[in-house]
């Protein structure tokens, strides 16, 4: 694991690996702390990311770095022959994501985005209900993920580091809407509230999937905490 002092690494991924019977935490790397893996069973620690990638015992790497650093370190991990689990969003742009996928394909390693919903039983249940037609023909959907990001020094407030509410929270809204529709929208409209630095503090969008199905989404760093998904069909509605 590189960037092992990140919040998601310390609060989620490292404890999960330590509790798993199917994973071995060979090494962690942090440029700021020498004991980032302390208490999680890490066999060794590196002060450079390159040092970890050079370790022949490391088979796969988890990358929870700021968004702007995903592509260079995914490509370096692939070149080192490591499978990669990269924190969402996979990349700030589609072009970067395509380059990352190509690099991993060329190296013969797996690239997976660390986005939980498609792998969660609740996500499976929602997809199954929609796919089996229990809601009938889809009419409307609304996905919301908002909260207050109070740490003003957080990289997600910095545009050059791939910050913004849409990139950080938007996947939780856009992905289930695309999954329900089963196709890309034919028309998209959106409005963003930008900070002085140019980062979207709040973002709302409207998507037209055709055949009478439209959807809205809301994501924000400066609104009360709300997480919800509603999918409405001609026969029934689903709310999470």
In short:
The protein has helices at 7-19, 49-53, 70-79, 94-107, 121-131, 165-169, 171-181, and strands spanning 27-29, 44-46, 60-63, 83-87, 111-114, 138-148, 187-194, 200-208, 214-220, 222-233, 237-239.
Could you explain how this protein is built, in words?
With 240 residues, the protein is of the alpha/beta class. The protein has two domains: 7-114, 3-Layer(aba) Sandwich (Rossmann fold), CATH 3.40.50; 119-239, Dihydrodipicolinate Reductase, domain 2. It is 29% helix and 29% strand. The strands form three sheets. A six-stranded mixed β-sheet has the order 7-8-9-6-10-11. Strands 3-4-5 form a three-stranded parallel β-sheet. β4 (83-87), α4 (94-107) and β5 (111-114) form a beta-alpha-beta unit.
CATH architecture of the largest domain: 2-Layer Sandwich
Q: Averaging pLDDT over every residue, what do you get?
A: 95
Cα radius of gyration in angstroms = 19 Å
Task: Look up the CATH topology of the largest domain.
Answer: Dihydrodipicolinate Reductase, domain 2
Q: Number of folding domains?
A: 2
């Amino acid at each position: 694991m590189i960037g092992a002092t990140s919040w998601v690494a310390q609060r989620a991924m490292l404890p999960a690996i330590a509790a798993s019977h199917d994973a071995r935490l060979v090494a962690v790397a942090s440029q700021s702390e020498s004991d980032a893996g302390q208490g999680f069973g890490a066999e060794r620690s590196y002060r450079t990311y390159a040092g970890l990638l050079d370790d022949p015992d490391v088979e796969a790497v988890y990358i929870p770095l700021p968004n702007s650093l995903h592509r260079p370190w995914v490509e370096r991990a692939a070149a080192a022959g490591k499978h990669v689990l990269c924190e969402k969003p996979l990349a700030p742009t589609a072009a970067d994501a395509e380059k990352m996928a190509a690099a991993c394909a060329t190296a013969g390693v797996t690239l997976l985005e660390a986005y939980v919903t498609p792998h969660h039983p609740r996500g499976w249940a929602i997809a199954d209900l929609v796919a089996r037609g229990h809601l009938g023909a889809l009419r409307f959907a609304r996905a919301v993920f908002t909260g207050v990001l109070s740490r003003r020094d957080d990289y997600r407030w910095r545009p050059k580091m791939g910050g913004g509410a849409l990139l950080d929270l938007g996947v939780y809204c856009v992905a289930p809407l695309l999954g329900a529709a089963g196709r890309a929208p034919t028309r998209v409209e959106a409005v963003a509230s930008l900070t002085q630095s140019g980062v979207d503090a709040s973002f709302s969008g409207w998507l037209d999937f055709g055949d009478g199905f439209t959807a809205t989404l809301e994501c924000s760093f400066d609104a009360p905490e709300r997480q919800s998904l509603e999918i409405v069909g001609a026969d029934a509605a689903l709310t999470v």
